[in-house]
Amino acid sequence: MMELKSFKKLFLMTKVINSQFELSDILQVFVDAIASEITQADLVGFFLKQPDGTFIGYKGNKMSIDITELLIDPQKDRFVRDILERRASDYIGDTSLDERIDDDKKLLMKIQSILGIPVIVNDSIFGVVFVHDFGKPMNLTREQIEVTEAFVNMVSVAIHNIQMFENTKNLVDKQQLLLDATKALSKSLSVREVLKTCFHYMKRATGSDEVGIHLYNEKDRTIEPYHISSVSVTEEEWKNRHREQIKLSIDKDKLFYEVVTEKKAIAISDVYADSRPDHRACEMFGIKSLLVIPLVAKDRVFGDVVIPTMHICREYEQGEMEFCQSIADVTATALANAIHTEHLDYSVNVRSMELQQANFKLEGLVKELEYLNELKSDFIATLSHELRTPITAVKGTVDILRKEVLGKLNDSQHDLLETAGKSIERLLNQVNELLDFAKMENGKFELMYSEFDFEELIQEAIHIVDSLVNKKKLELDVEISAGVDTTMRADRERILQILLNLLSNSIKFTPERGRITIKAYMEAGAMTIEVIDTGIGIPVEKQKNIFTKFYQVNNQINGTGLGLAISKQLIEMHGGTISFDSTEGEGSVFKFTVKK
């Protein structure tokens, strides 16, 4: 068991790590803390996993060796290979008795003892941490190793949160880009304007300078080059080569035939390993990889967007393809209207009416997406100080998409949005807890008192958790003592937060078809509330830490470990108390009081 002093040190360092939002900063604090505060080792290095399975030095404490010049190959180092295979830490107290260390590394770093710990993020190896001295054994204690392992786990959570944050930001950025593209396309009335706008936003979406746009000649069944942006060939040369040497016909080109006839995007990571592309044309332009996206509107193919990669092969991610397809779909709608205006011989009145209807649709889409623009603006404006606003904005966006306001979704899209919604909700709750904790730590937290009916508050809490209760088929009862005046004066939102936290914990740890009871009564002049469950209970050895910051009874349950700690502080700020009684295997009773 770690001493209380070690726990406090771990919590203090965790607080510092959670105040950082850059991976580089977090890992630097991490290695410095392990070296100076936990192990007193000469070297603590974080090695980042590479795509080829090797590990390259990324961050280390202050030392004479530049860790970024070091590369570890698990195939040559059995010690590292064992750590990766077992996905667990390993400690060699005397390297002269254990020959698993790579001899070259052992000689270079004068390693006599070494501790290695894998950093696992989202169930995958993200990196490896190594701790050792130069030319002398470390003699680490079991406690030092356990504290280091615990700290590695905390860093894994921090890295996971950064990844979630970056994914969320990328989602909002993509939505903003789609909004901008929609606005620009709604103002593009000619074919040339539409295609130039498409090119501009497709280039931003892919980060590529090589983007080509073709128009499809339905009568001749040919693909005709229209517009290109390239650093390797001019538009004139590109068109001349197509006209004189390539002459794309869907009946002779397997790739474009599949794109046009099946109306689907195709990504090819290696054009020469695939029989569909025209290898002669690819060689002529130096193309190694290819993404081709059809422009489809009203079930008709108007052309395609081609995004090649020159000189190197690359993989196209599914999310990238889907996002590019979204821009192409909006483009195709605008393109259909433009072609209709320029080429179809209808009367002026009919053409004007159709264009007006199309513009109304586009304007409606713009109005819907302007809400997302407001969320995006709030996100950027408050990014350095507040996290709740952008996360709430993303949640709103996902809810809009799930309700199919912007268009019908398929089952896969529904599943993705459902997963995103749950992840965002969990992240928002964690951020709210962390921000409340930070305000309390800084003494900037204030209660907002008002008069309200506590019985109504209980019903509101029940309504919020109703879906979770039904999912586990739990019984949820409310018992309010007769004659009790349920009017009280307190911070309503914070009392609701406390009650929801207790209810959520009971729901998490109560098996299906169990029972949860909320009791409210007066005791010693204070409103007293009990949340009673028939759950798994809390082990005796863990009960003493139940209100400790960052402590989790069950590490398999996602959370920050701050919920009960924050609840305790909120109750005490109200002048009340909170306590619990729990028997493992039988259930728990959490009780708090608030002076009326």
From TrEMBL:
Keyword Kinase: yes
Entry-linked Gene3D superfamilies: 1.10.287.130, 3.30.450.40, Histidine kinase-like ATPase, C-terminal domain
Enzyme Commission identifier(s): 2.7.13.3
InterPro entries in the record: GAF, GAF-like_dom_sf, HATPase_C_sf, HATPase_dom, His_kinase_dom, HisK_dim/P_dom, HisK_dim/P_sf, Sig_transdc_His_kin-like_C
Keywords in alphabetical order: ATP-binding, Kinase, Nucleotide-binding, Phosphoprotein, Transferase, Two-component regulatory system
Reactions performed catalytically: ATP + protein L-histidine = ADP + protein N-phospho-L-histidine
Listed name of the protein: histidine kinase
Residue stretches making up the Histidine kinase domain: 382-596
PANTHER family assigned: OSMOSENSING HISTIDINE PROTEIN KINASE SLN1, TWO-COMPONENT HISTIDINE PROTEIN KINASE
Domain of life: Bacteria
High-level lineage: Bacteria, Bacillati, Bacillota, Bacilli, Bacillales
